[in-house]
Specification:
With 72 residues, the chain is mainly alpha-helical. Helix content is 46%, strand content 6%. The two termini are 14 Å apart.
């Protein structure tokens, strides 16, 4: 899951709602908080998602064209 602000009410509620059912279905859940520019830059520079993943859930961030392509 990629979120801009992990500890704001809305994002906490979304994470809580998704995490339980995903774990029950046998998925591991990784959280990437990309709210500040340094974290966002580090995330896209290292692209930890290049490892084997089943899906990316991006909750409300706005990605530029290069960032969308990297996630794809």
């Amino acid at each position: 899951m990629v979120v801009p602000f992990a500890f704001r009410w809305f994002f906490t509620e979304v994470l809580t709602g998704l995490e339980g059912p995903l774990r029950e279905a046998g998925y591991d859940v990784l959280l990437y908080n990309v709210g500040d520019p340094a974290r966002r830059e580090r995330f896209f520079a290292t692209m930890p998602l290049r490892r084997r993943v089943d899906a990316v859930i991006a909750v409300a961030p706005s990605f530029g064209p290069a960032e969308r392509e990297a996630l794809h």
